[in-house]
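User: Hello, can you help with two protein structures?

Assistant: Certainly.
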Amino acid sequence: MTALARRRLLAAVALTPLAAWAPTASAQGLPDRPIRLIVGFPPGTGPDLVARVLAQRLAEQLRQQVIVDNRAGAGGQIAAQAVARAAPDGTTLLLGEVGSIAIAPAAFEKLPYAPARELAGISEAVRSDFLFVVPATSPHASLAAFVKAARLRGDRTNLATFGAGTPGHFAADMLGEAAGFTVEPVHYRATGDAVTAIIAGDVAGAFVSTALGLAQIRGGRMRALATTAPARLAALPEVQTFAEAGWPALDVSAWFMLMAPAGTPAALLDLLQRQTVGALQHPETRTKLSEAGFSITGSSRPEAERLLVAEARRWAGVVRSSGFKGD
């Protein structure tokens, strides 16, 4: 074989897998430009981790660049509004979550977007239960001891939240009501500020997502007293569930869903749903997200839409019962 023929053969072999592997995203209907995955929380947080792991895998599968765009602020509302206003062509996506999608419409009368009308569910990606944590320096080693002290104190017990109207805010109110003590929610605009306050002992405790809490607990900066999960966590087998403690109604969890602007063609939504489920089923993806404290879902589009309807109804009742008004 001549040198020229050998070079041609090698070139053909190199190109064969590329052509046979899969059609490009643009060939499947997506515009041939980068996809933006907008997430409403800053880099380094649990939602940001989910977005980056998912973006990396989607980029490989779609063979199209997927850029994570952090639009932190207002409990995810800034990000949700940005996607609600975007062109419905499949290139602007949202990692939506329970706070800005299911809770905010009931909690804020002047919400600048309407999730039910302006956003379409693609697939629930992951879910994270909550941990009730106290500073590592707290004198309370159990939930029972914490509640007893809160009742005896008589005045309000300060609990940090990651913003007014967020799941952790309502979970704190629910705990106070169920356990018989008065909660004073201390709202922090930035995740880092709330974490710092908890670690420093500026507040008595807080509800944090399992994904966030695990890192702080493993680092010896926080102590978990209970989990909202239905069963004890493998990563924290010594931590009881709220059901075990006698408060089964505290079943708050945070879900994260890939979403697109309403009006996005059904064919594109179906494509993105299939690719999202495929990305979540990848062993490396499952390992990274599971180790970070997330439960992997990967739902169908009808399942995602049913979840949105059910959660909006549920949280409307919780907000109404609490009397909370965000504006």
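That covers the first. Now for the second protein you mentioned:
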Amino acid sequence: MTSTPAPGGGFADLGPLRAQARRREQKAWYFYDWANSAYYTTVLSVLFAPYMITVAGRAAGCGDDADDTCDKTVSVLGLHLAAGSLPFYLTSFATILSAVILPVVGAMVDRSSRKKVHMAFFAWTGSFFAALLFLMRGDQWQLAAFCIVASSVLAGCSLVSYYAILVDISTEEERDHVSSRGWAFGYLGGGLLLLLNLVVVLGHDAIGLGTELAVRISLLSAAVWWAGFTIIPFVWLRNRDPVAPVDATGGLWQRSFGQLWTTLKELRRYPMTLTFLLAYVFYNDGIQTVIYAASTYGSKQLGFGDSVLIATILLIQFVAFGGALYFGRLAARHGAYRAILWGTFAWMVIVVVAMFLPAENVALFLVVGVAIGIVLGGTQALSRSFFSLLIPRGREGEYFALYNAFERGTSWFGVLLFGVVFQVSGSYRPAIVSLIVFFVLGAFFLLRLDPERGIAEAGNEVPRTVRS
């Protein structure tokens, strides 16, 4: 039995056999969220930066106890960068580079009948570079600097194909459920490996390892996890012919960036899609900055030690698993649009409450962590699925590349505001509450969005929950 597009871009009645086949592919698809989240949690969020500062600090002459206050420099392509800031410069450069490269990948994905192959290729190549982080030791940081940029960019490339596959394996009615479950799997998988790695790093003496070897093994484990679990979607997902691909003309530049320019111009035909992208840029930047600033706020303003901060990181990770599933249920009853809007209001409340948290009150800090976890998983999962309804069929790669490029290219706004407010006020309390502006702007654009109109204009079937 074959699937055929229904009028308006949806699916015809595919029958129980086809529905069963879709569910089987959806379960396989979840495992790429499970696979790549280990890289983002263990490597990018927790272990890489402090370890690279230590290694680069030795090379710069800061000694074995270098931290992010080490201002002695190392040379990177002729630039003299403070060892204490090196990993942050590298991840920022990877973010900017991704915003340039992802449109090329998106244009390629839309014309390809092998999306899962592209996803796996980028994942396995990225995990290879991530595995090379194991070689960072002593004062040898140079290879790791290249590898963290390469692995981060390749992870983003793999997600363009992965997000595009979501549209192939789910109907419009199923999209929120599938995206939420995938995101939940990601938080659970990333959280489990992070927990194991923190046990190894913090309890290294009990298992006969040095601190740095324990960190290096943990970095390697994230690469192996990423590569190993990618096998599941690679084996069980099906390749599909592209839907109404845009003809490729001209050279590589014209076929990629030229098509990106065409896509940007075409957004004028989809004003609701553009409105959502603007909303997403603001509220997602706020989310990312809250996560980035939480440990700094907890340690510098509220006076918590590493044990409390680590426990909070793990708590958020596991609560976000339930949060993604909970928001999936909200979307099933009220639609993704309403759930995302409610989520932005919840973020406003969180940053206001965070401003007034008393110092050294662990219980209240953990309560805010639970609230962050609930809203974090839900808003991110439903943003992905809702955006998939606002883009024309056959152009998923391009539009998701644009989605990721917008996210990565603007992710520094919140950090900049947080830093400026702290510098002016001398306190992290006004700095954390200043982030409310991103959620207010996100809600402003969401309130200007007509979801039913946007989905219909993109040629997709309007889900029942949106119409109700």
